[in-house]
């Protein structure tokens, strides 16, 4: 089967940073599904894992997590999905990735693809959706079914125009929250407003002063999707007493938790690979939430965050996609679809 991999961790401008090669088609066993890949999405995690470092691989390492495709084989222990099902999922950080024609994935982290979305539109969603859902409804413990209470509460989403922010805004609005999103360019401001943000402020300027100017002052929840170190002090200033802060961006400097102490505020991390990495007993929750989001997408309550589409799936296209994501100026999501066929 066709695959794209790396042996050395090089700048994306170098041809060897990602290359095409032939790999052995795997076989599904246990709870694994074998998926024929139709489309994949590139995330910041792809870029981070591939980033230049001294390490070298003995055999090609295949990256990639977001994907949509069709189940072509099921392991003997599979119960949730079957051959022929159209699916979407975000994979596992510790397994071979989705930059390949066929891919093995545990069925407990796979959802049924929304019927109304194309494979490309669906591939844009899983990783960011799981991240946003877990951050909002598990880590921050917001009850999406209690919209009457949520209508009285607010959330600040720092980094609203990126992949996670783009779906987090929609999910927070679905749950009934008042949403303040940050964006710094005219095109990103326009994008977050389209997604439903009630207010927009600039994360390059003082957060507290901007909130005060809008008569918002403090917020019940904060979801930080951009530079935890940079925004740490400001988040401590604007979180309400007994409020909750969640971040998905690792810190580079020690974080002073005393910033939150007097407010008895909660701080929690979200890492969407935790369940698959540690094979937690509740792994199936990702299957369930993806199915729920699939329903919401089919009902037009949510919309795909796909903004750019490239083709075909090969090393040259993926190098271009990585460079785009690496620029840090992505709005929404970038998807690469379709392997070239001999018939084509």
TrEMBL record:
Any GO MF annotation of the entry: zinc ion binding
Keyword field contains Membrane: no
Keywords: Metal-binding, Oxidoreductase, Zinc
Presence of keyword Protein biosynthesis: no
One Pfam family per UniProt: ADH_N
Start and end residues of each Enoyl reductase (ER) domain: 16-336
NCBIfam families given in the database record: adh_fam_1
Similarity comment text for this entry: Belongs to the zinc-containing alcohol dehydrogenase family. Quinone oxidoreductase subfamily.
Protein name from the UniProt record: Zinc-type alcohol dehydrogenase-like protein
Lineage of producing organism: Bacteria, Bacillati, Bacillota, Bacilli, Bacillales
